[in-house]
């Protein structure tokens, strides 16, 4: 059973449907007891970092995520859910994250070439660092497989944990992993066949 | 590198796809669910559903079908038609839409864009605008192109982007249905005016029209069309392969 954390941020319909489509039972919940019984946890998120981080804490879900991650349960943060895994974000201020992965989240505008649009929205190819072994959630992917991005902020200072990048006037962090904690900046649930392969591989961990 | 998007658009009335459709291998060509899935499986980068229903009953049916479509396709889904209030946003987003397209609703109440962007984020709000030349000036038309608002299109688009529209679909009434290519002059004017993604609509008649669009105007992010895809005049997979051969970045 996959537990999708519901902390009042974003639309979880597509994520739930895509898991159902690949034959994974999933539950959308904010009940710590239910999450404890799940063998995989997904932390979704859309919106602004500060607001989401506060909701995550207020709902008591931050504590649950940290506890389950420490217990070794596979955890996948998606989009803003991935950004929340880091130490902090500079989105309209400075906000603390869950500190599960070293690094910070900064606006992409100063990182990319002039003239490129922000948000970085659309399908972009994934590049896997050559010097590293491919992350198990990307086992069935090929270099340059496209996934769907929508974001204006990206993780930096996390080179040791980067498992994929995407070229957008700079090599932006597209995915990270540290032990049993995984993060995707893009939306696997909106990335067609490629995205479903990633979700399947995560559920098989 | 970010790829250019190819987007088929389906007009749905009372739960059925309208406009003649000419497909092989589909049992029910008027089913939005079957067609949505077909496009999703055959290379579409995104789907747009326009609800052209007039009655409340038909709208409830649309909502029902939208849910079923969203359950079976895993690419971004934009929904438009009859979006006048935040409740309308809420209704379609709850059914699994990723973005909501506003047109006449924003003309009646531009603040709708600001409210929706605040609540759901800029990336969720797509401005759709029907533009026609009147005395040589790009002018906004409302109500499906029937009503001249007298507004300058470039000023209107700039205003909506400032209010929070995250993407703009530019539909040229002058080229729509003519099938002689996209309205490059109009699109260039829009691209120069705003820094959000611009989606070209109206006028595609062949693969070459897409090649010309992306070669002449590299700033355009996506091409949208309806009938040429519905009638299988242009196959999306073949179109994307052709564009990739021209070194236009594509998701294949």
Question: Secondary structure elements and their pairing?
Answer:
The complex is a heterodimer of chains A (205) and B (252).
Chain A: E1 2-5, H1 13-21, E2 26-29, H2 32-37, E3 40-43, H3 49-58, H4 61-70, E4 75-78, H5 80-83, E5 88-89, E6 95-96, E7 104-107, E8 120-125, E9 146-151, E10 153-156, E11 162-167, E12 171-178, E13 181-184, H6 192-203
Parallel strand pairs in A: 1-2, 1-3, 3-4, 4-13, 5-7
Antiparallel strand pairs in A: 5-6, 7-10, 8-9, 11-12, 12-13
Chain B: E1 5-13, E2 16-17, H1 32-41, E3 47-51, H2 56-72, E4 77-80, H3 86-94, E5 99-102, H4 104-108, H5 111-120, E6 125-134, E7 137-142, E8 147-152, H6 153-163, E9 167-172, H7 184-193, E10 198-201, H8 207-216, E11 222-225, H9 227-230, H10 236-245
Parallel strand pairs in B: 1-3, 1-11, 3-4, 4-5, 5-6, 6-9, 9-10, 10-11
Antiparallel strand pairs in B: 1-2, 6-7, 7-8
Helix pairs in contact in B: 1-2
Task: Give an overview of the whole structure.
The complex is a heterodimer of chains A (205) and B (252). Chain A is built from six helices and 13 strands. Chain A is α/β, with parallel strands linked by helices and 205 residues long. In chain A, strand 12 and strand 13 form a beta hairpin. With 252 residues, chain B is α/β, with parallel strands linked by helices. Chain B is built from ten helices and eleven strands. Chain B has helices at 32-41, 56-72, 86-94, 104-108, 111-120, 153-163, 184-193, 207-216, 227-230, 236-245, and strands at residues 5-13, 16-17, 47-51, 77-80, 99-102, 125-134, 137-142, 147-152, 167-172, 198-201, 222-225. In chain B, helix 1 (32-41) runs parallel beside helix 2. The longest helix of chain B is centred in the first third of the chain and has 17 residues, at 56-72. The model of chain B has no long low-confidence stretch (mean pLDDT 92). The interface between A and B is medium-sized, with 31 and 28 residues.
